[in-house]
Design brief:
The protein contains eleven helices and six strands. With about 220 residues, it is an alpha/beta fold.
Length: about 220
């Protein structure tokens, strides 16, 4: 039975994909500056409350990945003006933004709500896509990872930038729809719809966790 038939029969849209490929969970930018009520995003007049609301579901997904033997990869932003690309810096200056975002050594850089376990890889980026850090793709290739499951923030910015590039580089893509969030709900929904239509799977974390457990039983 092929993956499409099996997924339809089970009602789980990622069961076939996660049973047949080597997957990793990518947790994107769960940092104080993006999520906290007094962080960088809030300072721009945007509402990061949805980014805080996903924490319980996201922790459950992370726990499920660990229990199922799925690698958890952590992606963090460091948007120091000296490190971001000139395109990034120009837009920031044109917008009149002076405050730093996710600067190491500040509270804004720190993890928010969820954090890595000992030994889980962390990748720092200086622009929206995790693939701007070449170590990220090198890690995926060296471990034979074929599918990336996305969680974190912001859905329409760094999550979308990374998942689009993942797809274009030949990685399968899935998004845990209740484990991603944005300060702009309409753009969050647009990314999910674009992903459903063009790029990969979108489903609740419960479907992904169930697929983790099936994969675990099949490999034990």
């Amino acid at each position: 039975m092929d993956a499409k038939v099996r997924d339809t029969a089970s009602g789980n849209p990622v069961l076939g994909l996660l049973s047949e490929t080597r997957a990793a969970l990518a947790v994107v930018d769960m940092q104080v500056d993006f999520c906290a009520a007094d962080g960088f995003v809030a300072g721009l007049g945007l509402d990061p409350a949805p980014c805080r609301a996903i924490v319980p579901a996201l922790q459950g997904l992370i726990d499920g990945a660990r229990a199922g033997g799925i690698p958890v990869l952590w992606i963090y932003a460091n948007y120091d003006d000296a490190l971001v690309p000139p395109t990034f810096l120009r837009r920031k200056r044109e917008a009149g933004i002076e405050r730093g975002c996710c600067i190491p050594g500040t509270q804004g850089y720190e993890p928010f709500g969820v954090e890595p376990a000992s030994g889980e890889p962390q990748f720092v980026k200086h622009s929206y896509s995790a693939f701007t850090n070449p170590d990220f793709e090198a890690h995926l290739r060296s471990r034979g990872i074929e599918t990336l499951i996305f969680a974190g923030v912001q859905t329409n910015v760094c999550v979308e930038a990374t998942l689009r590039e993942a797809y274009n580089r030949g990685f399968h893509v899935a998004v845990a729809e209740d484990c991603v969030a944005s300060h702009t709900p309409a753009l969050h929904e647009a990314t999910l719809q674009n992903t459903r239509t063009l790029l990969g799977k979108v489903c609740p974390a419960s479907d992904i966790q169930a697929a983790f457990q099936v994969g675990k039983r099949q490999t034990v």
